[in-house]
Amino acid sequence: MLSGSPIHSGSFVVTNRSVLAIAVPMTLAYLTTPMLGLVDTAVVGQFGDAALLGGLAAGALIFDVVFTSFNFLRSGTTGLVAQAFGRGDALEEQAVFWRAVLIAVIAGIALAALAPLVAIAGQKFMGAEPRVSEAMGVYIRIRLLAAPFSLINYAILGYVLGRGEGGLGLVLQLVLNGINIALCFLLGLELGWGVAGVAWATVTGEFLAMLLGLAIVIRRFRAVPPLPRHRLLDMTAFLRMLSLNRDIMIRSFSLLAAFALFTRQGAQFGTVTLAANAVLMNFFLVAGYFLDGFATAAEQLAGRAVGARAAAPFRQAVRLTLFWGFGLAGAATLVMLSGGANLVALVTTSEDVRSVADIYLPWAAFTALSGVLAFQMDGVFIGATWSRDMRNMMLLSFLVFAAALLTLAPAFGNNGLWAALHVFLLVRGFSLLTILRLRVRTAF
């Protein structure tokens, strides 16, 4: 129903099948991203050096602080394309895509040029020991060269998901991360390039995936009437996109700032604890990407319903994506509780890191359940383009997290640090749920 040749209709029915048609392929697609993180960590972990592992973790975090702040190019594009799709406005779908690409090119070139400054700022922020800082700097300087390709890939994926084409989204992500993982082993391990090899693998993967994605989308656009230039450069639409993107950027930056504080606090507990938390955070990301598949279904279906001004499908989309999200979160938690210790042993050869990670494994396992509502509500609000509410609730959640961190980490050490992360996830979800009830009354 939502792939191949979707139906442009103001009236449509949201079923388990229509949710799963988007969520299942996108869950598989998103899971390749933390799998890539696990492979990166495992490749560097084979050198048996906690400083290299800590440097990779810190470098990846700084990279994510920069790039996830630009994730609006994926999620904002999805929401706007889904609404245009709901209205049956094919020209606006195309215009949204090219506006996003234009922003991606400008921002990507700027980020690539600023790579040395970002590396220096990241090293100063983390304040880790010299060998950790050195490895982090190498990683950031190389990986940021992929910035223009990465941001264009966000726009391509946003367009595809806005149309509910989860299968095509899966193919694009498999190509991107498959190339990346293969090159990680080749450059990082076989050729012994270590952290630099892992970074160059990312640059190459992003570039090749961008070429494939652009070829598919441009070929599709050739089959429909050309987009008039005045439609592309419609200032009202551009300003709406920029306003939406600004709010999502603030929200994303706040989210990454919370993770940066989490990692920085872990670094204060020592290099071994920093490395152990890095391994466990990859497990949290695996659970998160499980949930992101259903959040993406919520984005497309909620956005389509808002575009079509259809209240019943909107409510059904919220109910079904939450139901499936909780089911998967419970399953992810059970898997991590039962098999997490074996996964930790697979990822790192360092006995010190393994023993510390095993202690805090239950905290990481339960992040799926405490975070499910936050992920799903984000999807609904992005699809509906209620970005101001999402931004405000994220800022509130960040303040609560900071207070919890300052209170719990000094008192309970690394246990307190993980407890503060759970507080953050719960506040995000329930604050948005409260706002949703008010929004639905006025939206339809």
What does this protein look like?
By secondary structure, the chain is an all-alpha fold. Helix content is 87%, strand content 0%. It has 16 helices and no strands. Residues 1-9 have low confidence and may be disordered.
Short précis:
The protein is mostly helical and 444 residues long.
Per-chain topology:
Elements (H helix, E strand, L loop, with lengths): L15 H30 L4 H19 L3 H16 L2 H24 L1 H12 L3 H14 L3 H16 L3 H25 L4 H28 L6 H4 L2 H34 L2 H38 L2 H37 L3 H15 L1 H17 L3 H57 L1
Helix pairs in contact: 1-2, 1-8, 1-12, 1-13, 2-6, 2-11, 2-12, 3-4, 3-7, 3-11, 3-12, 4-7, 5-6, 6-9, 7-9, 8-9, 11-12, 11-16, 12-13, 12-14, 12-15, 13-14, 13-15, 15-16
GO molecular function: antiporter activity; xenobiotic transmembrane transporter activity
Family: Belongs to the multi antimicrobial extrusion (MATE) (TC 2.A.66.1) family.
Membrane topology: Multi-pass membrane protein
Strand content: under 5%
What is the string of SSEs from the N terminus onward? HHHHHHHHHHHHHHHH
- Report the sheet with the most strands, covering strand number, pairing sense and barrel closure: none
Q: Structural class given helices, strands, pairing?
A: mainly alpha
User: Tally of extended strands?
Assistant: 0
Rg estimate, integer Å = 21 Å
- What is the mean pLDDT? 87
- Helix tally? 16
The outline comes out as globular
- Percent helix: over 70%
Low-confidence stretches: 1-9
